[in-house]
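Feature request, filed as a ticket because there's no other form

It would be nice if the structure record came with a short human-readable summary line next to the C-alpha cells. Right now we just get the raw output. Example of a typical job, pasted below so the devs can see what we mean:
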Amino acid sequence: MQDPPPDSYARLRQLPTDPDELLSHLYRHAPGDRPRSERAWMYVTETLGVYPVPPEVQAAMFGAAAKIPGVTLVRDSVDAAGRHGVAVALEVDGVQEQLIFDPETFRYLGQRGVVADAEEIGAPKGSLVRSIAILETKVVDQPPAPSPGTEGWPCAGE
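Raw output as currently delivered:
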C-alpha cells in the first residue's frame, strides 16, 4: 500500500523510531513507480525536507536510509550554512543526493546535490547543484505573520 509521506506532526510522531522497522514501513508505503529503493529514498528526502520531523524519527531516518541498497555514507558533507555533518547519499538521475545529519545527534541539517555523472547532467563531476540548510523548525498553532514586503504573496500569512 503506497501512501504519501505523513503531513502532520502527529502522524510523523507515529513513525517507527527503529531504523529496521522504519525501513520496512518505507518499503510498504513509499509512493511512485520507480524502483523500491528510490521510492524509499524519495520518501525520506521529501519528509525531512518539508515537514518538522521529531528528533527520534530523524535519527531513525538516517539509519533506515543507510540500509537502502545503493546508499553510501559520506563522512564529511557540508550544508548551505557551512555546517559539517555525516551524510547518506544515493545517485539519482546523475546527481548524488546527500542528506546531511549532525554526526552526534543525527539531527537533520540539510541536503546537497553533487554531479555524479557529468555526461548525463552536462556539468563537471563533483559540481554542487543544490545546497540546503534547515536552520530551525517549529510546530506552531498558526502560521507566522508575513515578513515585510511579502504581503499578498501566495500563502503569506494564510
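Something like this underneath would help us a lot:
The helical segments are 9-12, 19-29, 36-50, 55-66, 118-121.
The chain has one domain: 9-133.
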